[in-house]
Amino acid sequence: MGSGATLSRASLQRQLPLKLEALPVLPAIVSRLLRVDHAAPDAFEITELIVGGDPPLAARLLRHANSSAFSGVVPTSTLQGALSRVGIGQVLGMVDALGTSQYLTEPTEGQIRLWAHSLQTAYGARLIAQEAHVDVDPELAYLCGLLHDLGRFVLFGKNPEETLSIPGRGAAPAAIVQAERSDHGLDHADVGWLACQYWKLPDPVAFACRDHHAADTARCQSPTSVPDGLMQVIQLADRLSLVIQHVNGFLQASPRVQIATLERRCLHGVTTFDFLTTETLVGVAGTVALRTEEALSMLGLR
Ligand SMILES: [Fe+2]
Ligand SMILES: [Fe+2]
Fold first, then answer.
1. CATH class of the region 109-298
2. Which ligand lies nearest the alpha carbon of 216?
C-alpha cells in the first residue's frame, strides 16, 4: 500500500486473513529447520532458537499452540511453552504447508531492518527483565519483544519503513505512529492488535502490540492478565533498538556519550526500574547488538 491510501478498521479486518497467511518465510529458516536432527538431545533447544529468530514463524507457532487443536489448556505465552505443546515435528509441518511463493528470497533493506529491530527488542526485553529484577518472565519478555511490531509486518509488506522515508519525518515512535495514522488511517499498533485478535494470540503479546507506544500516545493501560512492568520493559527495549539503529556511532561512542544518549532517547517518559542503571543499559545495548548480528547471519540476512 502506498502513501495516501487510508485503511479503515473494517477493510483491514476483511484483508487480515490473507495478509496474515501471506506473512513471509525466510528460506534460511526453512533449510535450518529441515536440518534439525530430531533424535539429537538438543533438538528442542535448536528448534526454539531457530523459531525465536523469526517473528512471522514465532507468531504462527504461538497461534497454533493456542488454537482449538489444544483447547482446554491454559494459553501459553512463551516459545518454550508453545513448542512443548506443538512438538518439533509439527513446526516442520507448519513450514511445509507454506507455499514457496511466500519465501522472502530478496529482502529489502527496510525488511532487514525490521527483522533486526524485532530481534533487538526481543534480546533487549529479555536482558532488561533479567537485569531489572522485575516480576516479568524474561522468556515472555523475549516473545513480546519479538512480536511487538507484528503490525508492521502485516501493514507494510516490502516497505516497512515507508513512513520514515518521507523527508522531514523523524524516527521517533510518536512521529512514526502519527505518520502512519495520517497515511493509512491506522497505525501499526492498531494493526498488530487486530492481528493478535484474529489469530487469538495470548493477552501479553496482544497488549504488547497495542500498547508498546503507550508512553508516546497515551493509550489505556493493560489488564491484569499482563504482568506489571512488561510494557515498560518492551517500551525500553524498543527505544534501545531505535538508538542502536538510528544514532550514528552510538556503539562506538564513549560510555559518557552513550549514557547521555540513552538518558535523552530511552528513559524520558517511562518508569525506570530500581535495579536498572543507565550504565547497565549501556552493557545491554552492546550485548543486544552482538546477538542480533549473530542471529541475522543465522537467518541469512547478513
Ligand atoms: Fe512499534
Ligand atoms: Fe518497535
1. mainly alpha
2. 1
